[in-house]
């Protein structure tokens, strides 16, 4: 094992912080987790809290609390001569719409020997970053992606509540030129990924890319059905089951998604179980099950709207719409839902602004 390898975490939100905390707690002497903050204010706040992360875990009637102390910064690391210091391991856990701007300052620190783990909602980020920063792919870092079903949120900048024990599913994202090459075996993975897979609290597993792709598509469809509808209707996940006109909308979201996935990912033809896995009825039942098991959860998109923050709609339903444009497949339901989420946010922001102005004039 390399001596105390550094793992940088770009995006210290709930999931990025949770992963950093659990790995730092499990391997205090085997690696160094470093949080990268967007602003000096957020970095100062973290340092003023003794550079600690606190994770609160309700488990049945009991509540467990654990604390870790991590390094942090907000600028790309540099060598003594001022040149960019290599970043060998990077976890990207920013919001999808922030990723390009957040990653750009760190591009000089990355090389083809760097390892990047994308830990986000949505699909298409690996290809988007490749097209943006490494268009010829020869100098593209080794990119892996993780799908998370953990439930976590923050109640303070350094306090994470891990309320839903889920799992992380990880795969290597092949370069287009390497799509037919053998994938890395689990024992060939980057050292920090091996350590992540052995971190019990994260419940992580490694899948071949083909199997991962199906899981990723299912997760996107679940998010495309639940997140925007709960945001538009301002309800908990489980409340969708009471909507008398919800099922037809979900069916159309699913059908459009499956059509564009099959057009975009020719690889699906080489996956024997793809047709049964992407069956519309099976996917609808999966959405129902998630609504039931997370019935009291408020989706991240609903919370973004309630906080008047930008949403990840362009990387969820918007991703489906984009593929539809590319392949000339109509996606009217996903397009309408994307527009409604954006309209909901703009209306709420305007109402808040109007109320604030009135209060100031009173």
UniProtKB/TrEMBL annotation:
Q: Which GO terms describe its cellular component?
A: mitochondrion
- EC number(s) on record? 1.1.1.169
In terms of superkingdom, the source organism counts as: Eukaryota
Does the keyword Oxidoreductase belong to this entry? Answer: yes
The secretion signal range is none
Name the species this protein comes from.
Debaryomyces fabryi
Q: Which one Pfam family would you cite for this protein?
A: ApbA_C
For the keyword Repeat, the answer is no
Q: What class of enzyme is it?
A: oxidoreductase
Q: Which residues cross the membrane?
A: none
Domain Ketopantoate reductase C-terminal, by residue range, is 213-344
Q: What is this protein called?
A: 2-dehydropantoate 2-reductase
GO BP, sorted A to Z: pantothenate biosynthetic process
Keyword list (alphabetical) reads: NADP, Oxidoreductase
UniProt-listed InterPro entries: 6-PGluconate_DH-like_C_sf, 6PGD_dom2, ApbA, Ketopantoate_reductase, KPA_reductase, KPR_N, NAD(P)-bd_dom_sf
Ketopantoate reductase N-terminal domain mapped to chain residues? 7-173
State one molecular function term (GO): 2-dehydropantoate 2-reductase activity
